[in-house]
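Long-time lurker. I teach an intro course on protein structure, and each term I like to show students one example going from raw sequence to a predicted 3D structure in token notation. This year I'd like something fresh instead of my usual example. Would anyone be willing to generate the tokens for the chain below so I can use it in lecture? Attribution to the forum is fine with me.
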Amino acid sequence: MPLQRRQILTVASVLPLVPLAAHAHHGWSSFDADRPIYLEGTVRKVRWQNPHAELELELPANLALPPNLAQRAVPAQTAPVDGKALLARAVLPTRRDRMWEVELAPLTRMQAWQVAEIKPGTAISVLGFTLREEKGDPVLRAEYLFVDGKAYGLRSSPA
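-- Reply from a regular --
Happy to contribute to a lecture. Here you go:
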């Protein structure tokens, strides 16, 4: 098969996947960085893959902000940037969805933080940002992940 025809076939076979990839991964600018959202619940599904790990999180019916959220320990390198202040500004989502997609960090950063692969059934809490005005799907981009008593700052690498 001539090289040009092979290239056309290769491109043609990938094109149907482009809309899926574009839909699955959106830029960070669509998230509201002025309104940190707190979620906690049970992980139902896990996609431990790039461009970033993703979880499907089922929230309890009576989600509430923990009274000590602002006092939670955060990684030292994130504390001066936004750490405690971000926790202190956290709010609950206004929408009532019980299932949320949580976008974590790329796998290389998850490995640098030594976050073990999260399994379905794991209880976690997370602080992050949702789409502006909570429009669209219930998606949260994680800034802080809390698992088994440990806090991970997912926008940075460990010090």
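Some talking points for your students: Residues 26-153 form a domain with the OB fold (Dihydrolipoamide Acetyltransferase, E2P) fold (CATH 2.40.50.140). Residues 9 and 68 are 57 Å apart (CA to CA).
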